[in-house]
């Protein structure tokens, strides 16, 4: 199923749905979040997380006209995986603005060094920000959109009892963590075999 204008709830319907289901929506988002070092986290997206994000943006900004809804769909719908990949939002998180500015400058290019691997096999690096035009500014960004394009052999191995690791090998920010069994199960559901 894809997210379309017709598959979204009205603001009124979403307000009612949100009251009943917000805890489970947030639990699903939390399941698909991985902390990768002190200031680096990834939110693996799927139809549910993206639909939630769109509905929340419509609610917060009180968007109910077709052009505004279509604009949100155009911005967020490409984050839904298509069966051969995983998509994630990479966030560089700093509470202090001065620390954030320094951190973003120091970590410029980190988005190109995020990877997944199975049992120490060849790493698959994310393709970062492919739909965005970015200048050569040294400012950097605190949010990046990643796509992990997974070859069919890689997807096949995931169905075995393999250990999936998520990592980053950017100089000065090297981290790798095993992906929990629950997250792996959720990520496998995003794929076509």
From TrEMBL:
Top-rank taxon: Bacteria
Pfam families tied to this protein: DUF3501
Protein name, entry field: DUF3501 family protein
Originating species: Roseateles aquae
């Amino acid at each position: 199923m894809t997210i379309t204008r017709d598959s979204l709830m009205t603001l009124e319907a979403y307000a009612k749905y949100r009251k009943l289901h917000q805890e489970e929506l947030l639990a699903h988002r939390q399941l698909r979040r991985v902390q990768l070092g002190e200031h680096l986290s990834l939110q693996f997206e799927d139809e549910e997380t993206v639909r939630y994000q769109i509905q929340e943006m419509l609610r917060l900004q009180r968007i109910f006209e077709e052009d505004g809804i279509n604009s949100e769909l155009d911005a967020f719908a490409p984050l839904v995986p298509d069966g051969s990949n995983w998509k994630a939002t990479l966030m560089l998180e700093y509470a202090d603005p001065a620390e954030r500015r320094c951190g973003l400058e120091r970590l410029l290019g980190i988005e190109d060094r995020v990877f997944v691997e199975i049992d120490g096999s060849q790493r698959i690096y994310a393709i970062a920000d492919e739909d965005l035009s970015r200048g050569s500014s040294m400012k950097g960004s605190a949010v990046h959109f990643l796509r992990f394009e997974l070859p069919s052999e890689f997807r096949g191995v995931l169905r075995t009892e393999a250990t999936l690791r998520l990592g980053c090998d950017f100089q000065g920010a090297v981290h790798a963590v095993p992906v929990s069994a629950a997250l792996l199960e959720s990520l496998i559901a995003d794929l076509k075999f």
